[in-house]
Amino acid sequence: QVTPDSRLLEGLNDPQRAAVTHAGAPLLVVAGAGSGKTRVLTRRIAWLIDERKAHPGSILAITFTNKAAAEMKERVEDLVGKRARIMWVSTFHSACVRILRKEIAGLDIGGGGFKSNFSIYDAADSKRLMTLVLRDLDLDPKRYQPSAVLHWVSDHKNELRDPDDAVKDAKNGFEEAYASAYVNYQRRLREANALDFDDLIMTTVQMFQAFPDIRENYRRRFRHVLVDEYQDTNHAQYSLIHQLCGQSLEEHDEALAGGAERVPPSELMVVGDADQSIYAFRGADIRNILDFEQDFPDARTILLEQNYRSTQTILNAANAVIGNNRGRTPKRLWSDAGDGERIVGFVADDGYDEARFVSEEIDRLVDEHGLRPADVAVFYRTNAQSRAFEEVFIRTGQPYKVVGGVRFYERREVRDALAYLRVLVNTADEVSLRRILNTPKRGIGERAEACVAALADRERVTFWEALVRAEEAPGLATRSLKNIQAFVGIIQELQSMVAADERPDVILESVLERSGYLAELEASDDPQDDTRVENLAELVAVAREFAEDPQPGPSADPAEVEAGTVAVGLGDFLERVALVADADQIPDSPDGDDSGVVTLMTLHTAKGLEFPVVFLTGLEDGVFPHQRSLGDQPELEEERRLAYVGLTRAQQRLHVSRALVRSAWGAPVHNPASRFLDELPVDLVDWRRTASAQTQWGRPDLSSGQGAPLGSPTATGRRNFSSAALRADAAAKAKPAREIPQLDPGDRVLHDSFGMGTVVSVEGAAEKAVASIDFGSEGVKRLLLRYAPVEKL
Ligand code: ATP
Ligand code: MG
């Protein structure tokens, strides 16, 4: 019975209340962006605990990122108190790690032989391993690229197809090669006692299928399962939910030990929006949401139609764009927040001009409208686009935070340090072990490594055991043997710290010290190595924070959390680190003040978030929608859903921008306006542009009276040239006698192959002038201006 005055139902509309209080049959909440799906899910958890007296430990809630999980948990705690702490709110991956750590030892799944301290291989580890596999198989690296093979393997895992299936289904020589790579890759993972990201889900599902009594234990435990962002589940994740909540599992039930009764399915609620499905490339299947009622026959569906996030203008824009996708269920999404501001459109000369516009606009919003930089998010399609924004923000002194991008945990030195730690916990982890064997350089060359590998093969022992027994390796030079023994000694010494339960930060510091890693960096005079030392200091700080703040990690044992004795061992630390997702790096310093920090991120990481002010940038065909989607209807529709996600993050103000010229791989490219811009209703957008943009801009229909229309006299009187115009002019004339450009520090230039750059310094004059120019990721180049193909912008 609904308690209408429960505080848990405050601030909810009728369909939202119905979803929160619903009991029994599986429930699907489908609704457009910002209609309160996540809010409903959170409230429902509180409702289950408070009103329906569900034990918090019987709740499993799945979110898309660890950060979203932490926020949801916090919110539920605010509503019903500390006892909520022991519920499982986590990503699919974290939940599966937790289950597997408990169950996997001794089970015959995934080839068997896994121990509960298995390593988790991320994308970079997987790639290294696949590279080794392809080399072993003698496959031509040009035809069989590790990343392509891995993608193929990942697709298989997301579809729950194991190596045997792949071998059976191979239709041609090419697929046979892929399948044998898959077979060998899995074998080596198993030998390394490691699982990759996709394995975490697939192995859990395989375990539930092969051991129904284990599955029944989890069914008995999790009486309530809730899933946010359901539109982005793939087949493996879907199967996992089905194992826990489905009714028709007859095919597995014969195997139930001693003919035990099947536990009735748990209560399931999933929330999602088919228009926001943006992970098809990772196997996400929109049909999971469309077929929900078929898969769960007595399911109930609730629609939410009121949006509480955005102004009507923003919603109209988003609805108009997504309306161009075919075969979708039209939705009526409305808001009573009023029309609000018109959308600001901006046409920039190039990527820097676009960044300058964003920067100036942020200043204006702060000065004139009392907004804080933290209210602002800048979105772009691909990580590389952040560079122009970063450069401009650094110059203007605007603090910013890039979510994703070159991630801290992907930096070489951080990976090296973590590889040491992983070896200490799991010596079977061959990828990590080989990574650190000669890092820092300690005179163990490739030949020595090959000798040890041969010994491991011959004796059928792990690479580590072969290192320990290196004196048996034929052909190993005495010098190498000594060096290997010294290395083994260091590792064993460090292992004794792990055995003594030393804190992760203490162990890490010893690793950096004893391995000689830090000493090597400190002795170097490469300025990059200073940064590396700083990053390692940061990693030690992360470990220390982890050791001192007994906050439950994504897969901490709830019993320990309750008892206040959360494990803080090295293994726990590594697990926390391994599961950090892109979107988990959104700033939220509890002590520091983040109000001055602008957030930059890709559209994919923006899912589920909201910001008062949004800049959606790089709206050019070939950038967004992405180049590879242009000739492909399904991919184009996925890009459009991504646009819908981006547009609907905005609460009050939305800006859309494009650049006339963008440098791609160092060469300037002139992209037409994004088709998504054409899909915005003309009357919703207020277009602006810099003077120079007029020459190239072919969108008079959208200018809505702002600025001079194309072809008007002012349009030809351009004040400064866009680089595209310059290049076009240069091509038209018969190569004019080249003038040596007059450059000063700070000037922007365009180089034929390095792209955009900033002049750092100039020496000499006239014919002899040499400029140092910073081309960002291309590095700083010293160029003789007489010959260098640079143009001043
Ligand atoms: P998305 O599809 O982007 O994930 P969502 O459907 O999960 O969006 P929420 O993030 O839950 O939507 O809600 C959007 C915003 O609207 C939040 O700020 C939320 O607090 C607010 N909100 C939701 N329902 C109500 C309501 N009934 N009254 C007032 N505010 C609400
Ligand atoms: Mg949401």
From TrEMBL:
Domain of life: Bacteria
Alphabetical UniProt keywords: ATP-binding, DNA-binding, Helicase, Hydrolase, Isomerase, Nucleotide-binding
Any one Pfam family match given in the protein's UniProt record, by short name: PcrA_UvrD_tudor
Stretch list, region Disordered: 695-747
EC number(s) on file: 5.6.2.4
Molecular functions (GO terms): 3'-5' DNA helicase activity; ATP binding; ATP hydrolysis activity; DNA binding
Positions that bind ATP: 31-38
GO cellular component, one term: cytosol
NCBIfam families hit by this protein: pcrA (TIGR01073)
Protein's UniProt name: ATP-dependent DNA helicase
